[in-house]
């Protein structure tokens, strides 16, 4: 992803940030500052700097002398208007935007920290703005958990794999798997970019929707029983159907963002490491006439991606060929598994302008989805015209609700080949949901090998390796449960 970033021609590359707020109880500013200082010392990514950024091979390095950036402080009671009013909201937005301007990729800083207090309910906010080169959304949770531990005086334990070590491991991973290039070439063989030479020139537009709690619960759990799916299977099938509504196409290519922290070595542990680990890779979304078959086709397409796209960047890259201009990113459950202890938690409140409008990524449509407070939120950022953007978002919501309903109503499991790719023994099979309908004693189709074996028994063939027997297709084709009962 860092290679992709430097391949772009951003108007303001120093202002490509991720910013977020952590809601906390009332905090002592000095104690918070000490905890944040320890947090910055803990994570090497805060000291990453970049040189030769205008060339074809930028250099990333650590600056061991990088100073602590300090902690901004704001009493929100000093802002104009009452808390939550348009005046208040606008003033807070401008302040948090100002705090994250002026980053310097070569000399630093590449982050801004802040303490907001004076809220009517007695709570505080801890503000983070981090240049995207040093962070991803998984890092938000890491930083939030580490900060709370440090603030409470708890030890964090040993550090895991550094970002530098991980980068080297990914390069070695790609060097050992040159055959993956053929997979990516085949996947993009039927990709037909629409006027790839013309960058999107329409104004940025956004549409969003939020699922209710019941649909979100089903999307996170019950809906996956029917086809043994994951959440991205359902979300991307819904996106494919929405795109079909807009342009009539049955197959679409999408650039998918993944967390990138794949298991590529037993000695590597990046579960507590801050950095931009994100992968960005194309996927193919093939649709069929019926919903169930479409779900299975998209699921199989996604399962075929080697190691969730980890090798695409180092093996293929983002410079030499046109890539899909539709992006999708599911950020996960940003506030984690909510419990009764909500004293410290990520909140999706306005944290200022993280990326200015003139830093266009080249995407025509970007879809972001995440879950907070038990509800799925989905946003469509688009440079299509207003009517098309609105139609796309509404079609996406309708398709997602339809998919959730279809999956939760289905009683039998429909497996696909990828479900058995990793099966090596009985323990793996028992981990799969039982493939039965509502009536376990009811009739259901036999497999071909079962038919062949039973025909041999009925025909007085020697019982043994079924492969030793020869049967006619006429006999097996006429097989029915009723016929078997009559014998």
From TrEMBL:
<protein>
    <submittedName>
        <fullName>Condensation domain-containing protein</fullName>
    </submittedName>
</protein>
<dbReference type="InterPro" id="IPR023213">
    <property type="entry name" value="CAT-like_dom_sf"/>
</dbReference>
<feature type="domain" description="Condensation">
    <location>
        <begin position="1"/>
        <end position="419"/>
    </location>
</feature>
<dbReference type="InterPro" id="IPR001242">
    <property type="entry name" value="Condensation_dom"/>
</dbReference>
<dbReference type="InterPro" id="IPR010060">
    <property type="entry name" value="NRPS_synth"/>
</dbReference>
<dbReference type="Pfam" id="PF00668">
    <property type="entry name" value="Condensation"/>
</dbReference>
